[in-house]
Structure to design on (997 residues):
């Protein structure tokens, strides 16, 4: 049986499929984002398969730093799940705690990335230094922009929770969580494709 | 559900006309911007045609054109018509206006997102407009923007014009992504009780298929556009071979989107035709379900045909055959739709008011476009006709069917619902006959020019010995195109005059079945007095069980017929 | 319709033209059938007093067969066109016959540079000769062209031979032809390449055998 609820604009809406409308909208948004990153990653893979010398360039990336960042982002997904679990129970304090941690971890990712880029550019590996670098900065840059957007969203939710505005609207934590997990999953693809170089003498 | 809508308190001018979250006003905003760009695009066409017929002379009302400016005119004409005329009118205007009404909703699922989408589109329009006035002029690498020509400013002599072009497109894509989310979510979730998916008007099916195609195809091009901008501005070498890049990468990213994109434009136009043809034949659409399955099949196929734009690009020649195969197969679902239209006419009771004339025009023009596509899809034939005027004519036939003929059919038909008045029939019929004849007069010669080998995007055919004998065709097409532009004047007069002085329209002046006709003309905020309940499909015309030749979707069934009302829609 | 095509002077050009004719007849037949049916129905079934439209939905298999069967015919004809076309495509683009003459054609903004290997048949040696916009070939001989570009994408178009191939910077793309009639034939560029695209034009000069010998002697006198 269909639900109806009143939206913020005062308009009454139905949901003929039973799936909450906000969640459905978000999934369509994520579908278009998947094709965006998919296209970029696909272009990277095809370009790399078609040329040589990329392993040598990729060898200059710092696998330890990449690993740390992966760990940071994965942990932030965990804290996001815990925020959602708290939201499900209506635990306002829990929401605030876990959202704040997610924000801080997201910022940590960006700061580490910033330092990483700084040291790479300092060593002369600019986006113009070769095709691999062009792709590396574009892919991690686009991803970083999405992380930043997610940090902003989570920060806004945290502030709403602080002001008590999240009561009755806890489902927004779930929606933000879906987006955050997507951002994390993109990184899970980027990390091995960029950092975990193919064997020497290979692509 | 029967919640009454609160009577509107007086809302400011800005909230009503500028910052509106009402889907109907947003639709009209898209329409207004689209019509503005249609005039600009039409003027650019005039300049192109003048230069081609009378090279290096002064175009009346403008002045000297010449080869450098010509490239800019060609590029902007294509970009404007595809992204700033066809998409905002067919999807932004018709989609936004009709989807909530036709599914029985009070507005889109995300009205504020909707407002953001039209404002993003307005911003992208502004960026494109500014690009005309920057030093170096506007983009001039073709609407397809192939690198390396587009990737290094020195190759075109255009700097900020192309950067702004990329930016405008990125904003336009964002706008329509937001719109697409609304279309799909609204159709899925906000259908009125009883409105199952298979009781939806075909126009809605076409709009949501177009939205899915757009959502799933534009991502790679956004990635590609970011990469092009970086090549231009930062000095990367995604597409520049001297830096290790590949020009063909752009082509694949562009056309992976570009091909589904043409169906994004075509399907809403066909959707309009699919509503109007059965309506004026007073019988159901023939093959409602086959048409839907065909549309979905065509949508899926549209993702695997893209390299038919690249047969001669230097890509591996072995790829030509698979792409030729998929391309030729995609003609089958569209053939089905054409046959279904013809079968709809059979046994009908057909009248010919202006919307029907334009709907028939859509069918006639689309047929020629589709048939000539077979030539292009055959790889060996494409060796000769690629990048000639044969292709130009083919895509003008297919695009115009949707962007011109279907648009006019839709405007004449839904004008009473949108604006509360009727348009003038006499002016409408005059507009149709002028447009239909003159359109063919412009573009049939172009097939012949293409066969003669005339290349695209050249500013002066007289520079080539083998093209000089064909020049009368160019002159003929130019004269016809000027007359075609002038032939739109009856429409402009009709549109604006009818807005103020047209006959006031009742709720359902056409006696049509779909839900928008149950709302007032024009509908207020919230659309319906009470949310309708749907009892049947949208094409119950000349049903044997009722004396009238129409039977609205929301008229309750007779008590003797066993039908449960108010049931949740089954998908 | 096809009198608009330029004179055809190559070995495979005739097959490309036949493909065009094949498609033209098939498509032409559909055009007449569909337009004829539309015109007929518009007249037969126009609105008349007292006559009601026939209520038919077309969703059942029996009724839908009226549109599904023509679709099967369309599919069959499509496949025929495609398989015939595949053979012609392979001949022009995939099965390059051994060549009697090789020329390197480098496109640039805004003309064609033709590099002839000279009597030794090798590029990059002392007897290479470069001409601008002139491609001299003997009649009835297989010519292999290696296409390159110095800057942007151009397209090597020989309308009278029904040959076209993009020239892409960073690549060396091969194409071939065999001209069947002496004469001068234009080589326009068929891909937008900048503000000089219009007018970017070269000449294919097809010599009868004896004249070709003379031309070679003129340009490589010390052999």
């Amino acid at each position: 049986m269909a639900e109806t609820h009143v939206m913020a604009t005062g308009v009454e809406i139905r949901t003929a499929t039973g799936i909450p409308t906000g969640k459905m909208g978000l999934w369509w948004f994520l579908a278009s984002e998947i094709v965006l990153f998919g296209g970029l990653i696909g272009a990277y893979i095809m370009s790399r398969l078609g040329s040589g010398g990329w392993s040598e360039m990729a060898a200059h990336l710092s696998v330890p730093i990449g690993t740390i960042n992966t760990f940071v982002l994965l942990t932030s997904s965990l804290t996001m799940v815990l925020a959602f679990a708290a939201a499900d129970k209506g635990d306002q304090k829990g929401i605030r705690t876990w959202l704040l941690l997610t924000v801080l971890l997201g910022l940590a990712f960006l700061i580490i990335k910033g330092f990483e880029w700084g040291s790479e550019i300092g060593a002369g590996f600019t986006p113009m230094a070769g095709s691999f670098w062009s792709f590396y900065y574009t892919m991690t840059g686009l991803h970083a922009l999405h992380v930043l957007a997610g940090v902003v969203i989570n920060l806004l939710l945290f502030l709403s929770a602080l002001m008590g505005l999240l009561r009755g609207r806890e489902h927004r934590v779930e929606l933000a969580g879906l987006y955050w997990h997507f951002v994390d999953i993109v990184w899970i693809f980027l990390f091995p494709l960029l950092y975990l170089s193919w064997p020497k003498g290979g692509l | 559900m029967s919640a009454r809508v609160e009577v509107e308190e007086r809302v400011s001018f800005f909230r009503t006309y500028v910052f509106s979250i009402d889907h109907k006003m947003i639709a009209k905003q898209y329409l207004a911007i689209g019509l503005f760009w249609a005039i600009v695009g039409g003027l650019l066409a005039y300049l192109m045609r003048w230069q081609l017929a009378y090279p290096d002379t002064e175009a009346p009302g403008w002045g000297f054109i010449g080869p450098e400016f010509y490239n800019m005119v060609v590029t902007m004409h294509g970009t404007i018509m595809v992204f700033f005329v066809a998409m905002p009118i067919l999807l932004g205007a018709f989609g936004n206006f009709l989807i909530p009404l036709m599914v029985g909703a009070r507005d889109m699922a995300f009205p504020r997102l909707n407002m953001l989408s039209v404002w993003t589109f307005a911003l992208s329009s502004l960026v494109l407009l500014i690009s005309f006035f920057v030093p170096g002029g506007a983009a001039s690498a073709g609407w397809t923007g192939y690198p390396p020509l587009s990737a290094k400013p020195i190759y075109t002599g255009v700097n900020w014009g192309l950067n702004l072009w990329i930016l405008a497109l990125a904003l336009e894509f964002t706008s329509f992504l937001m719109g697409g989310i609304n279309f799909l979510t609204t159709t899925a979730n906000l259908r009125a009780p009883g409105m199952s998916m298979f009781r939806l008007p075909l126009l809605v099916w076409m709009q949501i298929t177009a939205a899915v195609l757009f959502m799933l195809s534009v991502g790679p091009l956004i990635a590609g556009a970011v990469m092009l901008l970086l090549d231009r501005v930062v000095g990367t070498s995604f597409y520049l071979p001297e830096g290790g890049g590949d020009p063909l990468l752009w082509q694949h990213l562009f056309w992976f989107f570009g091909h589904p994109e043409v169906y994004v434009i075509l399907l809403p136009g066909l959707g309009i035709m699919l509503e109007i043809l059965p309506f004026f034949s007073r019988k159901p659409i023939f093959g409602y379900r086959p048409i839907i399955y065909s549309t979905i099949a065509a949508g899926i196929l549209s993702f695997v045909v893209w390299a038919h734009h690249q047969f001669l690009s230097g890509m591996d020649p072995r790829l030509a055959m698979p792409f030729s195969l998929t391309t030729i197969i995609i003609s089958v679902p569209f053939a089905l739709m054409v046959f279904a239209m013809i079968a709809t006419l059979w046994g009908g009771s057909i009248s010919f008011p202006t919307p029907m004339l334009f709907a028939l025009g859509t069918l006639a023009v689309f047929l020629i476009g589709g048939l000539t596509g077979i030539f292009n899809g055959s790889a060996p034939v494409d060796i000769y006709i690629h990048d000639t005027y044969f292709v130009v004519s083919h895509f003008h036939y297919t695009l115009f069917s949707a962007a011109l003929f279907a648009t006019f059919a839709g405007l004449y038909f839904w004008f009473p619902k949108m604006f509360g008045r009727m348009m003038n029939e006499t002016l409408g019929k005059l507009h149709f006959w002028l447009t239909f004849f003159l359109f063919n007069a412009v573009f049939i010669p172009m097939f012949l020019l293409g066969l003669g080998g005339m290349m695209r995007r050249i500013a002066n055919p007289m520079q080539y010995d083998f093209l000089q004998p064909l020049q009368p065709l160019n002159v003929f097409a130019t004269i016809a195109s000027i007359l075609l532009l002038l032939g739109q004047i009856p429409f402009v007069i009709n549109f604006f005059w009818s807005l103020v002085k047209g006959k006031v329209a009742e709720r359902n002046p056409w006696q049509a079945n779909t839900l928008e006709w149950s709302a007032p003309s024009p509908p207020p905020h919230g659309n319906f007095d009470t949310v309708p309940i749907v009892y049947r499909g949208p094409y119950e015309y000349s049903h044997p069980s009722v004396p009238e030749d129409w039977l609205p979707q929301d008229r309750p069934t007779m008590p003797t017929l066993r039908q449960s009302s108010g049931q949740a829609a089954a998908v | 319709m096809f009198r608009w095509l330029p004179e055809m002077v190559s070995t495979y050009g005739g097959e490309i033209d036949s493909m065009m004719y094949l498609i033209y007849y098939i498509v032409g037949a559909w055009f007449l059938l569909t337009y004829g049916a539309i015109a007929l129905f518009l007249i037969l079934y126009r609105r008349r007093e007292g006559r009601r439209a026939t209520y038919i939905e077309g969703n059942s298999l029996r009724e839908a067969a009226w549109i599904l069967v023509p679709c099967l015919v369309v599919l069959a004809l499509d496949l025929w066109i495609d398989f015939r076309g595949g053979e012609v495509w392979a001949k022009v683009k995939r099965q390059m016959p051994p060549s009697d003459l090789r020329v390197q054609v480098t496109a640039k903004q805004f003309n064609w540079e033709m590099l002839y290997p000279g009597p030794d048949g090798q590029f990059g040696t002392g007897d290479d000769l470069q001409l601008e916009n002139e491609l001299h070939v003997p009649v009835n001989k297989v010519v292999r062209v290696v296409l390159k570009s110095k800057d942007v994408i151009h397209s090597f178009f020989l309308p009278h031979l029904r040959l076209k191939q993009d020239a892409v910077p960073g690549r060396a793309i091969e194409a071939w032809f065999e001209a069947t009639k002496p004469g001068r034939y234009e080589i326009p560029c068929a891909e937008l390449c900048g503000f000089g695209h219009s007018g970017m034009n070269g000449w294919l000069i097809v010599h009868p055998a004896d004249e070709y010998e003379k031309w070679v002697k003129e340009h490589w006198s010390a052999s």
